[in-house]
């Protein structure tokens, strides 16, 4: 037992060194360039190598089966109907395919990236109004593995009036790094996207967090990609309306989306650390839904 734990510790240490103690930003820029090279033969070879490290990569759901570039594979669209959207009122659905990380009640303005590693909302979101809005609210951390579907969607019917871009580092966001680097999400490149729900008093905020090899975050409501080359304003105004499940954008590689919700929401059944969730499945439920029939429908 002790030997197995020691081997696991060594593997984690090697993983951390190989994915973080390297020129992260330079490697991320390189990956952005490489992934856009258009060559079907090179892409097939690259995907074959990728599958050696991501055995769960499943392209059978993809609308395309042949790709001219890794970028096209990373940002692939799915066949129609592969991600049904929970249509029930006052249900917040997952904006993406993911593994659930830390989640639960926001303790004042404190949340956790991993056990024993807290951070303040203010370290992640500069806007003081939003910091107070989500005080004692709820949060869910959604980690998109590199093998997963990389597009993200509106979790509710909503409007988006602005996107705040925060430049930063490109630390790996896997569990190994989260247990070693304090306030990791607060160090990385990220965007803050407040959603104003239509017809409710609550609100949701999405914080897509970039990571190593994530060369860009693409929002369809913005004219430019948000990446390490972006030099525009930090606060980018926009005016767009989304229906629940409508596509908002994509990561070029796997990363993380942190979901903040006001205190009128509770976690849906089964939402706990380590759970696998797909885009469109119930993530949060309005606590005002208390009738037995409604509870049965959600849980």
**Roughly how many Å apart are the termini?**
38 Å
- Kindly state the number of beta strands: 16
Please report which band the strand proportion falls in: under 5%, 5-15%, 15-25%, 25-35%, 35-45% or over 45%.
25-35%
The number of helical segments is 9
Structural class: alpha+beta
The general outline is globular
Biggest sheet, open or closed, and with what strands and sense? Answer: 8 strands, antiparallel
Could you list the spans in which at least 5 consecutive residues all have pLDDT below 50?
A: 1-8, 290-299
What oligomeric state best describes the polypeptide chains here? single chain
The helix fraction, in percent, is 25-40%
One letter per element, helices H and strands E, the order comes to HHHHEEEEHHEEEHHEEEEEEEEEH
Q: How are the SSEs placed, and which strands pair?
A:
Elements: H1 2-20, H2 24-35, H3 40-53, H4 70-74, E1 91-93, E2 98-105, E3 110-114, E4 117-120, H5 121-124, H6 128-133, E5 138-143, E6 151-153, E7 158-166, H7 175-178, H8 184-187, E8 190-197, E9 203-209, E10 217-219, E11 235-242, E12 247-251, E13 256-261, E14 265-267, E15 276-277, E16 282-286, H9 292-298
Report what the structure shows.
It is a single chain. This protein has an eight-stranded antiparallel sheet, with no helix packed on it. The protein has 299 residues and is α+β, with helices and mostly antiparallel strands. The longest helix has 19 residues, at 2-20. It is globular and about 55 Å long. It has two domains: 2-74, no CATH class; 91-298, no CATH class. The chain has helices at residues 2-20, 24-35, 40-53, 70-74, 121-124, 128-133, 175-178, 184-187, 292-298; strands at residues 91-93, 98-105, 110-114, 117-120, 138-143, 151-153, 158-166, 190-197, 203-209, 217-219, 235-242, 247-251, 256-261, 265-267, 276-277, 282-286. It is built from nine helices and 16 strands.
């Amino acid at each position: 037992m002790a030997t197995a734990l020691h081997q696991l510790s060594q593997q984690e240490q090697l993983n951390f060194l190989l994915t973080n103690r390297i020129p992260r930003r330079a490697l991320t820029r390189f990956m952005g360039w490489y992934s856009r090279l258009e060559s079907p033969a090179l892409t097939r070879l690259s995907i074959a190598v990728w599958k050696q490290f991501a055995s769960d990569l499943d392209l059978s759901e993809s609308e395309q089966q042949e790709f001219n570039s890794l970028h096209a594979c990373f940002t692939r669209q799915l066949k129609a109907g592969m991600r049904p959207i929970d249509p029930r009122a006052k249900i917040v659905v997952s904006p993406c395919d993911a593994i659930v990380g830390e989640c639960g009640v926001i303790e004042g303005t404190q949340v956790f990236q991993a056990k024993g590693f807290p951070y303040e909302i203010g370290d992640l979101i500069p806007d003081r109004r939003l910091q107070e809005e989500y005080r004692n609210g709820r949060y869910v951390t959604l980690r998109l593995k590199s093998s997963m579907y990389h597009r993200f969607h509106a979790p509710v019917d909503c409007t988006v009036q602005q996107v705040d871009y925060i430049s930063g580092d490109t630390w790996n966001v896997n569990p190994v790094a989260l247990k070693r680097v304090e306030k990791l999400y607060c160090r990385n490149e990220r965007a803050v996207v407040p959603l104003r729900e239509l017809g409710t008093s609550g609100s949701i905020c999405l914080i897509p967090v970039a990571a190593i090899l994530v060369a860009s975050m693409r929002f369809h409501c913005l004219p430019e990609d948000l990446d390490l080359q972006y030099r525009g304003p930090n606060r980018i105004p926009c005016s767009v309306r989304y229906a629940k499940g409508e596509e908002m954008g994509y990561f070029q590689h796997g990363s993380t989306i942190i979901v903040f919700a006001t205190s009128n929401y509770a976690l849906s059944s089964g939402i706990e650390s380590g759970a696998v969730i797909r885009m469109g499945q119930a993530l949060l439920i309005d606590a005002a839904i208390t009738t037995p029939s409604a509870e049965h429908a959600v849980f």
